[in-house]
Amino acid sequence: MRRKLMAGALAFVMAGSLVACGGGEKKAASEGESKEAATTAQGGESQSGEKKHYKFGYTCMDGTNPFFVTIQDKIKELVEANGDELIVTDPGNDVTKQISQVEDMLSQNLDGLFMNPVDAQGIIPALDLAKDAGVPMVGFDTEVGDMSYLVSYTGSDNYNAGKVVGEDLVKKAPNGGKIIVLDSPTMQSVVDRTNGFMDAIKDHGFEVVAQQDAKGNLQVAMGIAEDLLQSNPDVVAIFGGNDPTALGALAAANAAGIKNCMIYGVDGSPDIKSELASGNSLIEGSGAQSPVSIAEQAVKIMYDYVEGKQVEERYPVETFLITSDNVAKYGTDGWQ
Questions:
Q1: Are strands 237-240 and 177-183 parallel, antiparallel or unpaired?
Q2: For residue 236, how many other CB atoms are within 10 A of its CB?
Q3: With helix as H, strand as E and coil as C, how does 170-236 read?
Q4: What pTM does this model have?
Q5: What is the rounded distance in angstroms from the CA atom of residue 9 to the CA atom of residue 139?
Q6: What is the pairing mode between strands 262-267 and 283-288?
Q7: What is the DSSP string of 138-158?
Q8: Distances in Å between the alpha carbon of 70 and those of 33, 100, 125, 293?
Q9: 135-194 pLDDT per residue, tens
């Protein structure tokens, strides 16, 4: 009997030891899982080797503009090639709508936001929302009213894009003359281009007979140009703040039978380059930029930042003049 009691007690002790060992292993496994989850949340790789996946937002002033279509497509291509997600919105040049769309994207737990504002000052409420949510913003193509909201910015040297256009006009119209300027005061990129253009033609005998807001839109520009050309058929040149504006002015000039007017844009779009290559268009030149380069730079900045690398405040992208003399170098079937 004594032997049976001792055997039973020993079995009980051994069973307890096994239970204790099992509990310790479970706790250790739980702690390991917590550490793995924490590592992933911090943006690195987990112990299982899984990569952190990012969700980015994208907003631009006008998603129908071919320039922004190219930027959007390239950013989306690069982000998805990395296994990540890009949420795209288009406010259609409506800053109130853009603010609402940004608010909606922020509710989806973004890791970053690519920002191109409809209105440099009007977008500030959306920037406040992103700042409060702790979502880093990389600006592209057009500056916001307060650049301190952005972790970095990349865009064309817009002032130079307008300047090279103005310099070309001065060379080709040495006696000056009447000109029309179709700008867009709420778009900082167009403001910079217009400033560069105006500085280049200053004191060279040019008279700005009209300067109106075309909102960077082809149809709006065409309507404005139609009216202005009726009262000013003798203008020597029209400056458009972007290529769609220049193309709108071209349509109006053609409809009015204008034969001697030099029309300039800014972008270097395939449509403008086709006009330049035709040899019989009123389009005289475009201050060219590269949306592909802007998109590539914006994506690089975003990934560098979210992965903890240091980024500069701004990354300028070169601008230059394209005319009929050099358009063959850049081709007409795509963006440079």
A1: parallel
A2: 18
A3: HHHCCCCEEEEEEECCCCHHHHHHHHHHHHHHCCCCEEEEEEEECCCCHHHHHHHHHHHHHHCCCCC
A4: 0.78
A5: 74
A6: parallel
A7: EEESS--S-GGG-SEEEEE-H
A8: 43, 24, 27, 10
A9: 999 999 999 999 999 999 999 999 999 999 999 999 999 999 999 999 999 899 999 999
Residue 20: its H or E element: helix 2-41
* Bridge-based pairing state of the strands 314-317 and 152-156: parallel
Burial label, 26 (beta-carbon count in 10 A; 0-12, 13-18, 19+):
exposed
Q: Are 162 and 287 in contact (CB under 8 A)?
A: yes
How open is the CA angle 166-172-177, to the nearest 5 degrees?
A: 75
HSE, side-chain direction, 13 A CA sphere, residue 3: 0
Contact 315, 153 (CB under 8 A): yes
Task: Give the amino acid at 246.
Answer: A
Question: How far is it, in rounded angstroms, from Cα 89 to Cα 173?
Answer: 43
What SS3 class is residue 88? strand
Averaged pLDDT for residues 57-75:
96
Of 331, 326, 320, nearest to 266 by C-alpha is 320
Helix (H) / strand (E) element for 26: namely helix 2-41
From CA 221, how far away is CA 110, in angstroms rounded? Answer: 36
Hey, which residues does 152 pair with through a beta bridge?
A: 138
177-194, pLDDT tens digit by residue? 999 999 999 899 999 999
